[in-house]
Amino acid sequence: MYEELTEILGEFPQGEYGHWIMDYENDESPEHPIQMPFVSYSGLVRKFMDAVFSFAKNHPEYGLNQYRNILKQNGIEWGSASMDAVDVSDKGGICVMALLLGAVRAERFCDGVLLGFFQKGSIQRWLERLKEIDGET
Description:
- This protein has helices spanning 3-6, 43-58, 67-73, 80-84, 93-109, 113-119, 122-136; strands at residues 18-21, 38-41.
- The protein is mainly alpha-helical.
- The chain is elongated.
C-alpha cells in the first residue's frame, strides 16, 4: 500500500538532501535587498514530498487533512523534537503517514525543518516502518 513512498528508501543518498542558499551578493540597500535564506532540496526530497501529498489525496479514508489531531491522539506534538523522538515500532500506518505529512507541512512554516528530519534519519525510520507494515499484510 505504501510502495510509492517506500520505494525511495533505496535512493537515499549519504547525507545530501538539500542545502541552504544564502544571499551574500546583495547589501540590504533598496536597490539590492537581501533575499531570505532558503533550502534548495534535492530531486529525491521533492519526489518524496510529491508522494506524500499524492498519498494523502488518494487515501481520504486516512483523514490526513487532520494530521495534527492524529499526532495528538498518539501523544505526539507537532514539533520537530517530539516528532523526532517518536518510537514508531508500534505505530500504525495512519500515525506514520501523519508524521510524514506533518514534517512536509512544517516546511511551509519553518524553512529547513524537513531537511532536519532527513538529516536526523527520522524520515528514513518512518518509511522503514511503512515498509514493515506493508510486509505484515
